[in-house]
Automatic annotation (TrEMBL):
Keywords per UniProt: ATP-binding, Helicase, Hydrolase, Nucleotide-binding
Protein name: DNA helicase IV
The UvrD-like helicase ATP-binding domain, residue ranges: 172-513
Sequence positions that bind ATP: 193-200
InterPro entries: DNA_helicase_UvrD/REP (IPR000212), P-loop_NTPase (IPR027417), UvrD-like_ATP-bd (IPR014016)
GO cellular component terms given for this protein: cytosol
Lineage: Bacteria, Bacillati, Actinomycetota, Actinomycetes, Micromonosporales
Domain of life: Bacteria
Organism (species): Paractinoplanes atraurantiacus
Amino acid sequence: MPAFDLDTELAAERHHLSESRAALGRMRGRAEALFSTGDKVAGDAYTAEQLGRHMARRVKELADDPTTPLFFGRLDIEESAYHVGRRHVTDDAGEPMVLDWRAPLSRSFYRASVRDPQGVSVRRRFGFVRGELTSFEDEHLDRGEELGTKSRILTAEIERPRVGPMRDIVATIQPEQDELVRAELTDSICVQGAPGTGKTAVGLHRAAFLLYLHRERLRRSGVLIVGPNTAFLSYISAVLPALGEVEVHQSTVDELIGRVPVRAVDSPAAALVKNDARMAEVLRRTLWSRLTKPTDPIMVSDGSYRWRIDAEPLRRIVDEARREGLPYAVGRERVKARVVGLLQRQSEYRTGNSPTDGWLRRMSKVAPVTEFLEKAWPAVTPESLVAEVLTDPFVAGDLLTAEEQEAIRWGKPPRTVKASKFTAADLVLIDEAAGLLEREASFGHVVIDEAQDLSPMQARAIARRSEHGSITVLGDLAQGTAPWAAPEWPEILNHLGKPQTRVVPLTVGFRVPAAVVELANRLLPALGVNVPEAVSLRRDGDLVIVPVAPPSDLDTETLAEITAALTHEGSVAVIAADAAVERLRGHLTAAGIEHATPDDVDSEARVTVVPATVVKGLEYDHVVVHEPADIVAAEPKGLNRLYVVLTRAVSRLSVVHAKPLPAPLA
Ligand SMILES: Nc1ncnc2c1ncn2[C@@H]1O[C@H](COP(=O)(O)OP(=O)(O)OP(=O)(O)O)[C@@H](O)[C@H]1O
């Protein structure tokens, strides 16, 4: 194609971009106008509020980010050209100018190939610099041209320096990822992928895709993203809003189940027992063992009348409610309602009148009824049940060994349940107890990231919240660092209540350069899990190992590596065992190098000091790892932790060590 043609094409595409931006502006203008007049056109306050909320969301959804392109691709199908972008844009007549990447037609942008062109003659990818269209790249599928991962634009996107929070990948989703993103809503999937294979990206884009296809249904039930910690959640928090999705709930497991404040810390042994699935059975047995067989009749004085229910019908009521398999608190309410129902029948028979609601309420509260209930089906709170088990774990009977019971037993039981000092692991027990008492509302879809670290009890907490929905489980068994991390997926999927979930591998790495992957892969055989190795798409990148010997010292060399890293573009992280973090921060401050904490994703500082225990899921252009031996020694699954730490680098990795490197790396 002659050069001037390329220029003309580029100019035409730029024109389409500015026209589309203007059209989006007008769409937003119309939404804003409706938003501001909503209360005048709506008939009543409720409708006005609903309409207002809907329009406010619509205005947010239509926000244009001038730094990201409104479209990133084009499909030529027969005589028409379709631009594919982050959201639908229509002209004033309602004709599409940009197709949402989730629309059925857009699927071909990600999946069409020479073998299966899906009617596409040309696929065009656009290159952008800060929202300005600068180039494009065509694949004439009709002429057998296909670039795949050799696309220059894909390579540039993967290799661009990282700054700030995570970005969406809509422009470059790969076919194997797209298949997962577009899986049916009813389909639960588990993605096992090596570091940087795009698991988090796939999960977030799947949430956006499902919201697009099933908006009303999922708006009612909700979509939940569960991540390992708040640093990770802030890192991913911008992705869904950038895709126009502003209503997804993002939470850590602890936030999800935090009914009471954490005021104590467990020993590792106690935390391990409390997170074990057997505790669910301990709680269940303890709870139901509270029921007692009624032996006395109920006698109620009601003005000049006296009502009586014999022990036998009371026993029947309790047995029946028990057999119905309801949650405990619901069963208790049912027993109460049936007892009051029997009183009502007697009253109707004797007086010939139907009792009033007031009478029914009074009967449900009279002492003989409440005393009967307290004995036969006592009121329980989640906290009181957990307190009972921790005060006397002997109730666990043969479910726990004597040592395990001793590990969780309260040394000095609190005087009241309210005064109890609960630990983080107790929260998961309290949540389990709450689930025995009443059903949790279920989300329509739950995405669980870093799921390899879920304890059985945490997985059960999520299962209760996804009982009627589907789940996307993302993780890497090799990155399991929790003491209970399972070596295989079926176990976790079982506790998540979805044992049939298919496990799909992702193996192509988009983050870590080949040289760094090669180093990290040396740890794999020592991690005791059977997972496929990562294959890196990135041939660039740099790895340096810096041994330190006197007279120099570890911290000085680490500082020198950070200073050298700052001469390159992009973010820099120094990752160290948690105990060394404060000291390193002090050195950086003394050296006048501005530095941030990992949850401050908006910080201007280029250097972040990250404790090894919170680095999961994050990435930085240049990573300086400080003393791997200390990272390994700091916890029982230290080698897995080191594997996570070594796989955070996008471009360059420096490993600074004064002690010998851990065996598999040496
Ligand atoms: N198709 C793609 N195109 C461009 N970049 C991609 C693509 N897939 C993934 N990436 C990028 O690769 C990096 C790693 O992705 P992501 O964090 O989703 O991986 P992960 O598998 O969750 O990693 P980890 O196991 O370390 O948590 C991110 O910067 C992401 O944007």
